[in-house]
Amino acid sequence: MRHPGPTCCALLLVLGLCQARPRNVLLILADDGGFESGAYNNSAISTPHLDALARHSLIFRNAFTSVSSCSPSRASLLTGLPQVGGRGRRRTVSHFGAFDAVRSLPQLLSQAGVRTGIIGKKHVGPQAVYPFDFAYTEENSSVLQVGRNITRIKLLVRKFLQTQDDRPFFLYVAFHDPHRCGHSQPQYGVFCEKFGNGESGMGRIPDWTPQTYSPQDVLVPYFVPDTPAARADLAAQYTTIGRLDQGVGLVLQELRGAGVLNDTLVIFTSDNGIPFPSGRTNLYWPGTAEPLLVSSPEHPKRRGQVSEAYVSLLDLTPTILDWFSIPYPSYTIFGSETVQLTGRSLLPALETEPPWTTVFGSQSLHEVTMSYPMRSVQHRSFRLVHNLSFRMPFPIDQDFYVSPTFQDILNRTTAGQPTGWYKDLHHYYYRARWELYDQSQDPHETQNLASDPRFTQVLEMLQAQLAKWQWETHDPWVCAPDGVLEEKLSPQCRPLHNEL
Amino acid sequence: MRHPGPTCCALLLVLGLCQARPRNVLLILADDGGFESGAYNNSAISTPHLDALARHSLIFRNAFTSVSSCSPSRASLLTGLPQVGGRGRRRTVSHFGAFDAVRSLPQLLSQAGVRTGIIGKKHVGPQAVYPFDFAYTEENSSVLQVGRNITRIKLLVRKFLQTQDDRPFFLYVAFHDPHRCGHSQPQYGVFCEKFGNGESGMGRIPDWTPQTYSPQDVLVPYFVPDTPAARADLAAQYTTIGRLDQGVGLVLQELRGAGVLNDTLVIFTSDNGIPFPSGRTNLYWPGTAEPLLVSSPEHPKRRGQVSEAYVSLLDLTPTILDWFSIPYPSYTIFGSETVQLTGRSLLPALETEPPWTTVFGSQSLHEVTMSYPMRSVQHRSFRLVHNLSFRMPFPIDQDFYVSPTFQDILNRTTAGQPTGWYKDLHHYYYRARWELYDQSQDPHETQNLASDPRFTQVLEMLQAQLAKWQWETHDPWVCAPDGVLEEKLSPQCRPLHNEL
């Protein structure tokens, strides 16, 4: 038995095979975080705490979110399920929530005797589906305080640990950093990089030593225009990532100080791509690729190594259940079919590089007004994206719209000036129905191979994989846009005679 | 004071100015019902009970739902608000619900001392927003039993009345008839017209005397193809409407028998257009025009008369609050602006024909997969529809898709045969962004005048009215599809440089 958990531990203890110490999980989530860290070879930013965690972790290089939007990503992360945990943003006019029958990670853990805690941005609902024993979130606190004030976060972690009983724990620290802020609290800067920095009117976060960056020193990712506006945007983002990094250090130090870090599986990742063009709300690489560090006290073998395995944030629920040896229950949400997790435990990867090659994506909407359903499959270097509403323009979300980077693209486009960008707005808005990219030859996903006859076989194989996954995950868009789903008897797609 | 209600009645009673008898409301809703009744001059169908009610009512000829889909229509009916009571279907994969802060009619009535009851199809949620003191709905019963078994409905009304205390009551009887049934319980026929008819395996509803119609005898509305398939579909619908009609008679008889009918405002209407092409889920006339009968024991003056006033189902909440003399509370849902009802009480129309000329429509989606937002304004005979997703095909819902009428259109189109229909599928799927019709010259809405220079002024006036209403009702789509809504500071639309 590789992972003795709470249920079998009592028995193993009797047999002298198990320590009495509970095994815990710390899940740390960045908000719109990307690869701006030394751990992921960005040499322009200083992230000593993430780098230290990475040296103690298996570093996944091909980890992907299944949905590039805050609430549904968090819902899929906490349920292991696409589609049903909440389709769009929660705490907005969109008001999306999980289906009442969904079994979430905090529910399953609690029922199995694990104490659960959340500190920071929750962004999923309803409460009955996502209950936590200990909760300091935007639902009862200021999200700036519980999500960006790293001293407050440190003290909440301390409070959680001080009130810990003899159960194992699952602590979910969901930073609000490095999310944009210019749309909601512009007084703190575009990334809230000034919040708590000690300047006049900004307050002071005692544990934070702000780092500032010169726009000329940032690394501009290929999908961001290399312009003064975008560089200034990135420099502000770096400062906020620095606060996140120091916060991660403080959280780990609290566990270390309480003597539980060596009993705790630590996972660090982010909910979706960075809030730049082709990033968040897109199913391109910049929108879906995520940092993922997994550090296990019981799996020292591959610490500091890089895994090339293709993994998904849908794998986190199976991983955490595996760590606690909790089986996934048999139940239904719609009709008679038992709910199945399509993800897998990542723990075996901590021992041996696994041969995993395929991950899926499923984006339906960000705000309710932004219906632009997309489905994707990544198989090794090939990525296929199916844009179901391809005839309409890709929708731009409010906080990205007002960002300096996007405003600069808009203004330059209007003025007929060069944008410094690898795309143009027209093609960004209007996308082909099928997009197929081979990142081994075309890392920036600029050559759509979907209509290239040399790739017909690849296209058809990926289309078939995607359709199979959609049926398996009860995707209500499975027949879109060419047909109507007939659900009674045996579910099937019936054509619209639509001539799309 | 025209309408002494429960709050002031005690005082007036002391003064000898008010009877002790409480004033009640009975709201009867048909499900996908239309103008198939003698009350609305359909001579092919027999609906003696609706006709009798009409003779005792003001008959509105220009009543419209603001949204042509079951759940959001019921939500708008029970809140007086578009947009916030639940945007799409509730008890499906769509899982739409009201915002928690919304104040609904049952809440407001209950707080003011009115007992509330619902029998039949509820289809809105969550429970906390739509509480009823007495409830037999699909949430605790078979919807066939509480929505189509008119004997069961009669007995539930009797139970409600037998348990009535000295408070006034609001009883909402939401029939499931004449909704289609072929997609879910095909064994009962396409409109559940066989359910309870006494034939083998169909069960028997004791109080129902089924009427059958020959396909050759039905009246085919202009928007339905005159084909054998559609005529058979309509004949089945007529039989189910007959059950509804007899159910209405039974419900009224229960109130009469309990001695409360003469203290009760009776309203009969339907949630959306009939489930035929251009009907339900469309904002054309067949999708939005509703029967509306209002019968007041205190307003005998216009009984049996027809009103030409343009009224909306959004007017029902103000009407019912007015009847009980309950003020609408001051509260907010988003941000700092107080929620305002945009509808008006219909009670003055029972005295004098009012000069009301304008109603609005707001359809966002039916199922979550069917995002096709539309906004409309009807001003006298002019109707303007704004199709926000006009580049994508209009989505076809599942139960209409499998209907004999639509299958016949599909099959004939595929075979290249004449469809007998006033439209063709291509134009039904692909719609102009703006559609402007003048029903005084073009009752079937076939000539789009939006680009006709002679109607530029009308177009611009209606566009301005529509935009004003969208801002007033906090419509998150107010900037779509050309712009992005910026909500902070003063809300404004910012352009996409989109070249739609």
From TrEMBL, chains A, B:
It holds the Pfam family SGSH_C. Residues 23-325 form the Sulfatase N-terminal domain. InterPro entries: Alkaline_phosphatase_core_sf (IPR017850), SGSH_C (IPR032506), Sulfatase_CS (IPR024607), Sulfatase_N (IPR000917). Its cofactor is Ca(2+). It comes from the Eukaryota. Keywords: Glycoprotein, Hydrolase, Signal. Residues 416-469 form the N-sulphoglucosamine sulphohydrolase C-terminal domain. GO terms for biological process: determination of adult lifespan; glycosaminoglycan catabolic process; heparan sulfate proteoglycan catabolic process; motor behavior. One of its GO terms (cellular component) is lysosomal lumen. PROSITE patterns: SULFATASE_1, SULFATASE_2. Residues 1-20 form the signal peptide. Transmembrane segments: none annotated. Belongs to the sulfatase family. This is N-sulfoglucosamine sulfohydrolase. It comes from Otolemur garnettii.
